[in-house]
User: Fold these one by one.
Assistant:
Number 1:
Amino acid sequence: MTAKVLINGAWRSSDATGTFQATNPNTNEKLPTEFPISSWADCDAALDAAFAAAREMRTLPAAVIAEFLESYADKIDAASDSLVEAAASESGLAKSPRLADVELPRTSNQIRLSAQSCRRGDWALATIDTAAGIRSCYEPLGPVCVFGPNNFPFAFGSVSGGDFAAAIAAGNPVIGKANSTVPETTRRFAQLALQAAQETGVPDAIVQLIYRTGHADGERLVSDPRVGATGYTGSRSAGLKLKAAADAAGKPIYLELSSVNPVVILPGALKSRGAEIVDEFMTSALMGTGQFCTNPGVVIAIKGQATDDFIKAVQDRFQSSPAGTLLSPAVASSLNQSVKTLCDLGAELLAGGGEVEADRCAMANTLLKATGKQFISDPEGFQTEAFGNASLLVVADDLAELREVIKTLEGNLTGCVYSDPGGSDDDAYEQVAFELIPKVGRVLNDKMPTGVAVSAAMNHGGPYPATGHPGFTAVGVPACLLRFGKLTSYDNVRPARLPKLLADKNPTGETPRQIDGAWTTDDVKG
Amino acid sequence: MTAKVLINGAWRSSDATGTFQATNPNTNEKLPTEFPISSWADCDAALDAAFAAAREMRTLPAAVIAEFLESYADKIDAASDSLVEAAASESGLAKSPRLADVELPRTSNQIRLSAQSCRRGDWALATIDTAAGIRSCYEPLGPVCVFGPNNFPFAFGSVSGGDFAAAIAAGNPVIGKANSTVPETTRRFAQLALQAAQETGVPDAIVQLIYRTGHADGERLVSDPRVGATGYTGSRSAGLKLKAAADAAGKPIYLELSSVNPVVILPGALKSRGAEIVDEFMTSALMGTGQFCTNPGVVIAIKGQATDDFIKAVQDRFQSSPAGTLLSPAVASSLNQSVKTLCDLGAELLAGGGEVEADRCAMANTLLKATGKQFISDPEGFQTEAFGNASLLVVADDLAELREVIKTLEGNLTGCVYSDPGGSDDDAYEQVAFELIPKVGRVLNDKMPTGVAVSAAMNHGGPYPATGHPGFTAVGVPACLLRFGKLTSYDNVRPARLPKLLADKNPTGETPRQIDGAWTTDDVKG
């Protein structure tokens, strides 16, 4: 029996071109349920339904959409056991503390924060110029396709994660394309979302779900005239193909791709608290078996005794720590390939490098080392992302060489700099930060990059090729909603015809609006 | 003698692959100065200098960049006669009232408003989360290439217009690519900008100028790793080629392309004040010989006596009004071609349709008519932009057909709806606006689209293919600066290392910042 797709409010048999099964990475066994590979007919039907839902949603009060999100968040919390069960089988991630205690509450929290922003309209940058008679705000831009990744089945899931919540909160329906590693988990979320939709009176087609398509159909989907925009989190190669298709059609696409998240450790930091930094690095590097978007994949330091000690300590810990389970056979194979690429380029293998057991998806914790000169000689090669429990240490001869290494970096989500709290690294910090900041979406001090707080000030984004655009964040409410908005000006539009956000009266009494140059929650003065 | 390019603060001979001359459209005679067609060597040198200037600008106080802009604005005002003289020769636009009294003051005003936003940092959406220890804001993203259009040699000029001012105010140097119709005008602006740079202590390479490149070099320029982003205003075909190149390299590009700016006139409006609407339409349609981005190219009405009267009145006025001068031989030729295309599709020619005089660039004021059915049968064809003094009237059988016409529209900068002030059109308005708003960047009531106020609430943008992205505006400070910013989060960054915009103390005492969820100009409380 093949699972059903969710199209236009009904679970129905897919017009399928084939089926697939997910694998339990803890056993390497295929999971029983067969999921359909949708043909274009499924995509086309979902697009029609989404387009109709988007029209309907334009006249819904924001509060109703917010209620849908809140109802959905409650259902997620209530269904925690079932969701965690499915995700643990499909992803190999630990039920506790990871899935049940961290990712699930984060997911429902993100949805609730998005609901709050939807209700308040604080994301829409309402701007009123009373003298010119012009008012503007961001509005929904149409159906959003969301392609979720394999590494956060809840918090970035295609019908549960940040892109989903942001797209809905901005007033758009979502067509979710499940990550093929977690189809059953995603199906369970879609069931809850549909229930919430039916109970709160939003269009059923506010959420739809397909599990997989052929590549050509995926490209056709993101470039279809009925689509408003796409959010994608996943591999660089697949993402760039979708980007090319969407770009050619003039459709916005927001991508979160690969990132090696450089961590620079300056000498004074190692001297003053090297042991602590070893601990922090270990936790960050091996958390979730290294499968975080913000995993510290490249650590850069300057040669010297303290660096040697750091490397030795990390090497010991990599060797002695148990290897976690990887998300899928494809992840294991890709990690193997990346490590091989780095070794072929001349990186020295300090730990791991091979598979550990045959009956699960796993690879020994892998630590590689290269010199600054090696890195600079082939920066593209040495920035090969090794997604998983592998990190590359780069040892520069001196600060000048370290700076040169940073100058060769591509765009990244994060960049960390550890420096001496006593101030001995302050000059070096300035030089390093100056080169690093333009390359990253988030700069951190004295702190590892994993852990993406859900904060209004969070930027989970960064320059290409970490993402597709340097101006947007995938996390952080309300900023992340802007991606799914269309700016609209109302010029001389009669008062009764203005959207509520732009009416004289503040729609909620607490919606921030820029009126004649100043942000305020007041009404427009008569 | 060939004009010099401005690279790295020096007027120097171009490494040219050829030369070109502009034409005076009032006489069809070539203007004397030869301008170089730059080779890649010029582009490469400009990119190097811009990249270095961008690094330098990152450490300049915002106030210094603001002073540069203000000094430049003053110089523009003082050099008005010379600028107007050059622009009148090259563009055929009237010295007065257009160039001297409208466009020039608008241009220096835009620059001053951008300077004010630069100084206050109000564009950067500074966001502070004290509990999480995360702060974010938009920052410069690197050198910006600006390709200016032919129709606003000042206000959208590549080294004087809105994109230029926005890019600089966001902290980025500009490489201007002059529009080939107005090279001497653009050269004069660049001279003033260089003087202002030298007097205010910003890097000389904050502004550079080339006049023309081969197509391949243009595409290479916008996709070069040293570039931060590109602003382009011009033809759809050239713009989309640049977009493809920039997209493939992951470089943001903001395009303002073609737009037919639909104007819907509902029956009650024609009945209640038809004669006034004729006047308003005539002014808007023939202003600047119809060469405004927001020219009302398509007027849609419902058949009936009032519509017949409107058409007759407009036809008479089109026939009796003198034909203005077009911007260049290329514009005249393209307008001729577009009118021919529309006639070939079956549009009825009510006025004009041919060239009027041999010794200047001009075409008779051209009015075309089609039925709603014709339009719906080939919407792409009937949306052929006829850039210049030509408009298409579309007469629908009834409101339902009018809605169908609107549903077939592509993205546009503007959409206008005229309706009865007495309320008889209110139901029709709702139906029309519902279809129209998703298609346009700015919706207007009872008002023609020409006239793009410089207002914080202005959106001069719109869905593809009117522009490249539905979320951005080319006009309206501070919103238009966001295009040239990169979002950066500072996570746990030590207080002394934060950018001034994110420090506890409000940098100007009047910079709006979102602190813990509320917009305020206060300092962060200790």
Number 2:
Amino acid sequence: MTTAPAGATGPGPDAHAAVTAIAREAKKASRVLATATRATKDAALHAMAEALVDASDRIVAGNAEDLERGRRGGMKESLLDRLALDPLRVAAIADALRELAALPDPVGEVVRGSTLPNGLRLRQVRVPMGVVGMIYEARPNVTVDAAGLALKSGNAVILRGGSAAASSNEVIVEVLGDALAAQGLPRTLVQSIDAFGRAGAVELMRARGLVDVLVPRGGADLIQTVVRESVVPVIETGVGNCHVFVDATADVAKAVPIVLNSKTQRTGVCNAAETLLVHRDVAATFLPAVLAALGEKDVTIHGDEATAAALPAGLRFEPATERDWETEYLSLDLAVKVVDSLDEALEHISRYSSGHTEVICTQDVTSVRRFTTELDSAALIVNASSRFTDGGQFGLGAEIGISTQKLHARGPMGLAELTTTTWIVEGDGQIRQ
Amino acid sequence: MTTAPAGATGPGPDAHAAVTAIAREAKKASRVLATATRATKDAALHAMAEALVDASDRIVAGNAEDLERGRRGGMKESLLDRLALDPLRVAAIADALRELAALPDPVGEVVRGSTLPNGLRLRQVRVPMGVVGMIYEARPNVTVDAAGLALKSGNAVILRGGSAAASSNEVIVEVLGDALAAQGLPRTLVQSIDAFGRAGAVELMRARGLVDVLVPRGGADLIQTVVRESVVPVIETGVGNCHVFVDATADVAKAVPIVLNSKTQRTGVCNAAETLLVHRDVAATFLPAVLAALGEKDVTIHGDEATAAALPAGLRFEPATERDWETEYLSLDLAVKVVDSLDEALEHISRYSSGHTEVICTQDVTSVRRFTTELDSAALIVNASSRFTDGGQFGLGAEIGISTQKLHARGPMGLAELTTTTWIVEGDGQIRQ
């Protein structure tokens, strides 16, 4: 185990001491980075990118071990594909670091400020969080993304990746650490606690005061476990039971492609649509058109009776149950329901949504106004695909996840969301009366 | 128990069902308020203020029960004073609601926005959180402040006050509810769970999904309990081990009043200074002056040897121990240490600070730059009193607390900090390629 983190004494009862030591090192390293200039950070990102490409063979070899273990363990082909690295994928991961270097530095941004009546000069300035913890699943590109986003935003990162990608991540973290050290930065800016297994993750969730924020990324089970167990502040990401509502006045020629794109452009992602609601007044023209188009994409429809009645021949159909309204399929399945009114649509969405993204297709200004003020989701989209809820699409640059909670960050989380602020007050002797 | 909350079945095993029912009512009420105009909310605030003044006699009578119980239980005079209400204090509490009405509405503010290359019009808009939970201690004015801040920011509030103020709070919540109902708003916008005691507080901390944020306000024990036990996102407030560092180049004529004001203007508050660090190069002139001034205010000095050597006759003095550097006295006590350099001061503060407020007195630009970039606290103040870290003083209006965590809010939390944002995206048929 050549890359065991500093202080590591193996999994088990010593995880507490080891993870605490790692977190202290991270905190110390974060202080160095907090005052680093953008030029220093961007140079480090380029060096990290180059080091990954240079180490492509070693990374692919480590990844081969993971794939072999995965195959022996009966991992599904789709998961094996997400885990797999080849030189082309390593190059793409490295490019993401170069793109981060091109983004503006969030640190130092003056968020607001004023001169107070007593002459105090007040400004609220963006500063790094300090230490960011990531608990995530199999994909090794997340290791690099998280390291890059943390570095650019001035933070140290502690990584707990899935065991399925352990060998890939071990090599990647070592390569990134070497690149940082060669740039004169602490290699402890990017540390892994994978060596401590589940016990390490538990310690990370308890390290309040040493770890400033924890971002879980993965399936609903992983996220809920972290939310429940962590005393470190958590940002909840990623579960999306997204809706598209096609209103009475919708432009059918636009609504059909919007539904198709929302459902089928990519299915395994949190901003894909899972339920389609159709206003009864437009159902006769819209439903046959959209169902035929969905059928061509092999989508299975889970519909109510009105949907069943409009179904073209040859489509896969199952009668919808309560469970369908709640389900984030992440597959070529779509729940479909005909509603009598905008009110019924709003009611349905309020009840079943996970608060991620909701779309309305309409030509009516009152419907737009009500849909965008009465619903309580991270993104409310009018006449466009749900797939636009994304940091890159919103022009925020890279994203570390999509927050579905309301505290701190909501929706796509980029560099700014990995910072906090400090109030700086400058006076010349003012005291309070 | 005329004001038992809807669904209340008494303390004990039914707290879960009762608090869940209360939280659901709050959520429903919050939806009504989310789309209310500023005019509606301000009218409600004025009506609430008027109702409190009209009910002054009943509130003072309820408060008398609390005071009587407190006296029998041996409550300290200083706490009895903070608990006590008379018509003048009720009027002051009501005025705070009128001041809230005068502040701009945070809801609807466009935080940022742009038109994307594909023509999508994107804006990030401030919206209410939904349901805010407050767990706090004895002072009944917090009941009204919390209700007012929540209402103005478009949120419903669930209150768990200290048992010491139970009778006062019971009357106040009933009066506020009547005022809301008379304005055509749900009285469930302001609900108390005091009837369920500790079991109710536990349920509130578990109501993730129904309660959007929990703000504990009170002593360190209360706050730490909530941080540890809550699965609802928490904003940690209020512990302040604040430092004043008097640098080698400090203007002594300004530094003495700054130290005095930071320590003695009010002692029981989180932005009072608890430790004074003095650069050795200025100690000979500064220390005798500041110690004499502190002595006149009856401050007890907990000092190192260099401080002891400079001590004027007649001052209360105790040799400082490690414990003194860690202590938030909240009293007329001050830890004092002479340091050799700015580096030693920064090191000391980084080690012992609770991350609230740090002050530097200096005439040197490099010291200002390092102090305001290398320290990691909510407020960094140059040449002014620590007592300025306050929502009112910063010009933010009323505050619900001072956050010492980094997520969501840091420093004084006003109306904007009780909101979240939604991304609204308007297109005309865009789909993702």
